[in-house]
Amino acid sequence: MTESLLPPGVLPDFPPGWVWLCGAGPGDPGLLTLHALNALRQADAVVYDALVAPEILDWCKPGAEKIYAGKRGGKPSAQQRDISLRLVDLAREGNRVLRLKGGDPFVFGRGGEESQTLVQHGVPIRIIPGITAGIGGLAYAGIPVTHRDVNQSVTFVTGHDQSGETPGSLDWAAIARGSQVIVIYMGMKHIARITGALRAAGRPEDEPVAVVTGATLAGQQVVETTLARCTDDIDAAGLEPPAVICVGRAVLMRQALDWQAMLAGTAPRDTDPLGRGRPAESA
Ligand code: SAH
């Protein structure tokens, strides 16, 4: 398939004994990169995570070994070690090993640790970035992660640390003060604590929040809410992870830019949601 898309020589050959660590994007197979597709077409073994959409594996070459490496309960650190060492073994057996991860492998994806293990064991690697859920997933909800009238910075945070608790190392008050837009990964479990910390640090009760689950997939759901109402609205809508949660006025832009609703024939709710009162193209 890539063969017909690109002239020969543009995309690399996958040498046996190598591990390519590759982002699969947030779900929609169309968001794979050409490098990812090129890797799928050549890999002998594909080690994939729970968040990799099943359709993407249909692009594996015939006979490729597909190995599920999602973590379900148990001891995450031990399992992580097993996955990393499995990659080393598969490479040493002479396979072309594709380690496929949801989103981008280096964004809350343990891609750094896995690559480091490979390097420490002398296994050659290539890193293929992917579209991360906190950017591409929000774009599918019609939310620009930066927008000139709203923010000059954005902070990506994880709502879990290795222990499964909200990260003790995070200074939520500093984040609340310093970042106009905050994008939270893995935030559903501790959403009440996170929104509470942001409010306690002075973020307004009515600050816009969007919760996007299953972003870019057919079952994508978006709830627009506020810092004060967020936890109740998540419960009321019955939302389940995975979700990216965006805090900040960028969320208002969805009223103009919900392109999926427009595809379905619904007119934009408000073409000037920030109330600029002048055309967007004027500086
Ligand atoms: N490496 C991934 C993130 C892995 S951590 C990336 O770059 O996107 C897992 C978290 O990512 C989930 O808890 C959720 O917060 C987010 N996520 C991944 N895919 C998602 C999707 N399709 N919709 C919403 N959130 C998603």
UniProtKB/TrEMBL annotation:
* Annotated pathway: Cofactor biosynthesis; adenosylcobalamin biosynthesis; precorrin-2 from uroporphyrinogen III: step 1/1; Porphyrin-containing compound metabolism; siroheme biosynthesis; precorrin-2 from uroporphyrinogen III: step 1/1
Q: Which UniProt keywords apply?
A: Cobalamin biosynthesis, Methyltransferase, Porphyrin biosynthesis, S-adenosyl-L-methionine, Transferase
Q: Name one GO molecular function term.
A: uroporphyrin-III C-methyltransferase activity
Would you say which domain of life the source belongs to? Bacteria
Broadest EC class? transferase
Alphabetical list of Pfam families matching this protein:
TP_methylase (PF00590)
Q: What is its EC number?
A: 2.1.1.107
* Domain spans labelled Tetrapyrrole methylase: 19-228
Asked if the keyword Metal-binding belongs to this entry, the reply reads: no
Q: Could you provide one GO biological process annotation from this protein's UniProt record?
A: cobalamin biosynthetic process
| The keyword Transferase is annotated on this UniProt entry | yes
* Database matches in InterPro entries: 4pyrrol_Mease, 4pyrrol_Methylase_sf, 4pyrrole_Mease_sub1, 4pyrrole_Mease_sub2, CobA/CysG_C, Siro_Cobalamin_biosynth, Uropor_MeTrfase_CS
Q: Which family does it belong to?
A: Belongs to the precorrin methyltransferase family.
Query: Which NCBIfam families would you find in this protein's record?
Result: cobA_cysG_Cterm (TIGR01469), PRK06136.1 (NF004790)
Query: This protein is called what?
Result: uroporphyrinogen-III C-methyltransferase
Native species of this protein? Tranquillimonas rosea
Upper lineage is: Bacteria, Pseudomonadati, Pseudomonadota, Alphaproteobacteria, Rhodobacterales
